[in-house]
């Protein structure tokens, strides 16, 4: 299906009609999104229960219902009456955001959120989850429904289901700007590079300490190897949580852990570890960086220092995104934290949704973006400053200098607004899939080439 051009869309149908047709495959009255439940809050969706598992619908905070559940139940992660879509594990958990989830069977992931072990399963029209271990003890009926509510809230926070993505777009942009700067690139990515309609991609909300040290391990690395390093760190320095049960048939989803899990190490344990011990875990030169960053973080007050950085996203004084700039500068003081790692920690760990991490995939995307190229040329001609000239020179040489990094980030923040990081996540997937399609096409003329895992840095 050929992508529609923005001017044709604006003439033939309203914005939200087009939004629903593109992202959800159907039309929905705009008024339904704004209706309330009679108490001043938005309307709550109808309960959806079925089968022996007591499946219930989990939506946005302004649009969800919860029913009591027993120990052997699952819950659906979806938002059927919102314009956000479900959290799709195959998109969220394997693109280098979190390294504490592993695929244990077809369509089933198991991993950590804090000290809880979750299983997440993709169904044809929904995503199911189950907490198989809560804290240090397995779930039991004595904890009552309140325990499930807390587990549910933790997973909602992890997938950041509190971000009303579509409503944010409607609020921040005019119709013309939405069509030109937001919908058109997303439309093309979804169809040209195989992203499914109504994708459940989310920008995850990860514990800041875990996020910092995982991305320090990501330097010049790929996702499977980073996941292995993080697993070894947990097993060596983390608190034991859950042991794997005896082997069961493939695809089992009966509420038992498939893997043995340890909590992510504390900052104090990483600071006390020797570089030799960390090197033996396969971290290589990153062992010194992990240990040095842990010592530095302890000197600054431990995890509370990262919490203070996270609070800076609420700053309203100064230039736009001033809180993000301050947080990035503070993170760059840690050993092993460069510009890209700092942006990742700001986006996933500290909640700065305007952060724009850049790797080789996103750099190539910028090289092919005619709008960005025109932006650089016009800026150098208008301002005629040494900085503008240097940025254009580095761009033409395909060199990611700090000035060019600033230019790419500022351009995309102006284009996509305060939630630019969400657009970056989808562009990143599109760039990876584009690269794989091109590699496959090149390999079809000769011996097929093995597709490498995407690099995180």
UniProtKB/TrEMBL annotation:
GO terms for cellular component: nucleus. Residues 217-414 form the HhH-GPD domain. Its EC number is 4.2.99.18. InterPro entries: DNA_glycosylase (IPR011257), HhH-GPD_domain (IPR003265), HhH_base_excis_C (IPR023170), OGG_N (IPR012904), Oxidative_DNA_repair_enzyme (IPR052054). It is an enzyme of class 4 (lyase). One of its GO terms (molecular function) is class I DNA-(apurinic or apyrimidinic site) endonuclease activity. Coiled coil: none annotated. This is DNA-(apurinic or apyrimidinic site) lyase. The gene is LOC113146467.
